[in-house]
Design a protein that fits this description.
This protein is 49% helix and 10% strand. It has 37 helices and 19 strands. Strands 1-10-7-4-2-3 form a six-stranded parallel beta sheet, sandwiched between helices. Strands 8-5-6-9 form a four-stranded mixed beta sheet. Strands 14-13-15-16 form a four-stranded parallel beta sheet, with helices on both faces. The longest helix has 23 residues.
Length: 773
């Protein structure tokens, strides 16, 4: 079902060429790519955050009394799998249920909060949009003759362009959060929702502080840098007439505001000025203190890897007589998000930024590119509703659909599906690049696609060099598009005979038989389009292993593509056409299982089809029935074939040592982690060396590796450096897209590593001379 299009909001207040306006996306993108230090800073941060976060989750004490939990709301599907402890998953599910209940009853919960807050002497204003919020604050400044404002961290103020609006009216604004102040000195927006200047190293920060203080500041001594900030900001605290802060939670039962921090500046902002304004989105509501404490337990661990932040403050009214407290509750598209079924879950967000902290493209270009005001995966989702679809059009193209963001989200937001929905809106609004559109339209017609690829395979024969197509890279430099796509990876060769031809005429299996629980099962093999057209040996390996296990393998005629290329690109029309053709073809297969060696295809059929056909109930039912028989190769071998330990062991195997790359969706959607390792170590008897960051995407990302190859190149470089560290001879994974990407990069770098699908490794270990069981 198409996601309803967000309305086009008016231009953001404060626009007009000020420091608060972002550059156009393509300029931000190119500037980030040209900044090599940026990538180094961000990668270092992501790696350290991951360790801190995992340590904080492991150290969580499960004994404290849990918060009282509201009944879980009805969901169409379970929350995404969680990366962390069982305690994290339990707390996540509890908080998601609480937030869902609030979202369902949002108008009444807003009323309860406002009534409770006003009973404590608080002025509450509901702002329908950014302009209304800014008008209220400007009027407040005018009424109290305020000309200087201090702020603690509040992303809502960035959302409404408050600084630019205040400055345009002659009101000085000073950010007092250290990271926000550094960004203000640099004339930049925050690049991260929790750590605004995380993309800068200490040397860059020292330069900014030296300019602000008018004297040299150490580039190495962080304590000195913090001291300079403290002394410079102190005078602003004392002079300001208005303090502005954000909120981490709004407690509806008492009208109380919770905010957390590590520096203490927020307490000064909220207590010293005579007027205090709290800016908060209406999604920050929680029902009671127990829910607020539950959020507190999750937020610090997910945001900074701490057990708890240094300061946690509950504010229930003006700090002292004679001072005013105002709370501005902002809609600005949030109610429209609430009315949009798939998107409404984004209102659970507690602004921890964990989705950015695990995002591979974010580590390449940073938050000024991977987002608009809100960075990271959540920014790709909420930006269209706060700032219009045009603001999200560029950033959404960076997502590689690895699903890592969903696994660390402390409230279980289905961010990958939401981002694809935004991408589809962008394609509907702007269309696809002409070459990609033509390719997908052709691919949606199986017979035309087959004829075109067979012709291309014949035409490309002179360029064939084994499994690769050799490109004259000196000549490619003359064609920028070719240079962008091939300077760092070698394209595969197109075999003249696809896998379907070879399987159709394969001889009866006569190799060694294995003791297997799969004996007697009938399996329909869905080849997967990349395997079929580029890697026929991979397809033959899948069938050989299955037949060695005693399964009867049938290869359905007329099969083509599951539709994932169109889905990933946001082209839902071609995606549905290919999905329907796949469903019709596979329905005819009389088999116990429909098996594919492409884990991405299994994910599409098991999880994506239901959403793809949300507006077509008949097709949705057919897809659900089909999904009951769909299985990926690794799961089948682990759970159904159940080969005995050592069944495929060979002395002095040329493949050892082996390392394993987790295809993102195999791990993050299908939950395949121990199964492939068990097959390699136990069944194949091979030395397995763990790949550092094995769960991090290789950079293929479907259409992203074509439309944003510079990002794909840098993510791949991270992966290949990790492969080098293992010293492995063989890199194994279970998805043909990853194999296409990894083989091309390894060939271009001339690394002495072969890349194999798990089925290829098992078929090779099977060997021709094994005694029959």
């Amino acid at each position: 079902m198409p996601t309803p299009r967000p309305p086009t909001p008016p231009p953001s207040p404060g626009s007009g060429g000020s420091d608060h306006d972002p550059l156009p996306f393509e300029q931000r993108y190119r500037r980030a790519l040209d900044n090599a230090q940026l990538g180094r800073n961000l990668l270092r941060f992501q790696r350290s955050w991951r360790v801190s976060r995992d340590d904080a989750l492991t150290a969580y004490d499960a004994n404290p009394a849990r918060a009282t939990v509201a009944p879980a709301s009805r969901r169409e599907e379970p929350l995404p799998p969680a990366q962390g402890t069982a305690e994290f998953a339990a707390l996540r599910d509890q908080l998601a249920a609480i937030k869902d209940a609030v979202i369902a009853d949002l108008p009444a919960t807003l009323d309860r909060f406002q009534q409770a807050a006003e009973a404590r002497g608080v002025h509450v204003y509901r702002a329908v949009d950014a302009a209304a919020a800014n008008r209220y604050i400007l009027a407040l400044c005018a009424r109290h003759d305020i000309h200087q404002v201090v702020k603690s961290k509040t992303m809502v103020s960035e959302e409404i362009e408050l600084n630019g609006e205040l400055e345009a009216h002659g009101i000085a604004v000073v950010e007092t959060d250290l990271g926000e102040w550094i960004q203000q000195l640099a004339h930049e927006r925050p690049s991260h929702m929790v750590m605004p200047a995380i993309h800068k190293n200490r040397g860059e920060v020292a330069g900014l502080l030296s300019a602000a203080a008018g004297r040299p500041v150490s580039q190495e001594d962080i304590g000195e840098q913090v001291g300079v900030a403290r002394s410079e900001l102190r005078r602003h605290f004392l002079a300001a007439g208005l303090g502005i802060s954000g909120a981490n939670a709004l407690v509806a039962a008492s009208g109380t505001v919770l905010f957390i921090e590590n520096e203490g500046n927020a307490r000064l902002v909220t207590s010293l000025p005579r007027v205090h304004v709290i800016l908060a989105g209406i999604e920050k509501l929680v029902p009671d203190y127990a829910a607020a404490m539950l959020q507190l337990r999750l937020l610090a661990r997910s945001a900074t890897g701490q057990g708890i932040t240094s300061y946690s403050t509950f504010l229930s009214g003006p700090p002292e007589p004679g001072k005013e407290l105002h709370i501005v509750l902002l809609d600005n598209g949030r109610l429209h998000m609430r009315a949009t079924p798939l998107i409404r879950d984004a209102l659970r967000c507690i602004r921890c930024a964990a989705c950015a902290d695990v995002c591979p493209p974010y580590a390449v270009v940073g938050g000024h590119v991977f987002g608009h005001i809100y960075s990271g995966a959540i920014g790709l989702v909420n930006t269209p509703y706060h700032h219009g679809l045009a603001a999200a059009a560029g950033p959404q193209s960076l997502c590689v659909s690895c699903n890592a963001c969903a696994t660390v989200c402390p409230v279980g937001i289905p961010l990958p599906q939401q981002i694809l929905a935004v991408r589809a809106q962008v394609v509907e609004d702007r269309g696809l690049p002409a070459p990609l559109r033509a390719a997908l339209e052709l691919w949606a017609h199986p017979r035309l696609a087959d004829a075109a690829l067979r012709t291309a395979a014949v035409a490309a024969t002179p360029l064939r060099d084994g499994p690769f197509t050799r490109v004259d890279r000196s000549g490619a430099a003359l064609i920028p598009t070719v240079q962008r796509l091939t300077s760092w990876r070698t394209p595969p060769a197109l075999p003249r005979r696809p896998a379907r031809d070879r399987l159709r005429h394969r001889p009866a299996y006569s190799g060694p038989a294995l003791e297997s629980a799969a004996r007697g099962l009938r399996v329909a093999y869905f080849i997967q389009c990349i395997t079929d057209r580029l890697f026929p040996r991979m397809a033959l390996s899948v069938v050989r292993v299955l037949e060695a296990c005693g399964a009867t393998v049938v290869v359905p005629e007329q099969q083509h593509c599951c539709g994932l290329p169109g889905l990933d690109a946001g082209a839902l029309g071609p995606a549905r056409a290919m999905a329907r053709q796949t469903i019709e073809t596979l329905e005819k297969a009389q088999a116990d299982y429909i098996l594919t060696g492409g884990a991405s295809c299994a994910v599409a059929m098991l999880h994506d089809y239901a959403r793809l056909f949300a507006a077509e109930p008949a097709w949705q039912i057919r897809a659900q029935v089909l999904a009951e028989r769909v299985i990926d190769f690794t799961t089948f071998m682990d759970q159904h074939a159940r080969l005995r330990p050592g069944a495929l062991a060979r002395p002095h195997s040329p493949f050892a040592p082996v390392t394993y790359h987790n295809f993102c969706q195999s791990l993050n959607v299908l939950g395949l982690d121990s199964a492939p390792r068990r097959l390699i170590r136990d069944v194949l008897g091979l030395e397995l060396r763990e790949l550092p960051e094995s769960s991090v995407c290789c950079g293929f990302g479907g259409s992203t590796s074509v439309t944003r190859p510079e990002v794909a190149e840098q993510i791949l470089a991270r992966k290949l450096e990790n492969v080098r560290q293992t010293g492995a001879r063989t890199l194994v994974t279970d998805n043909p897209g990853c194999i296409l990407h990894l083989r091309g990069g390894i060939d271009a770098q001339r690394l002495p590593v072969r890349v194999l699908h798990l089925a290829e490794l098992m078929a090779a270990q099977l060997g021709p001379g094994r005694r029959q069981a």
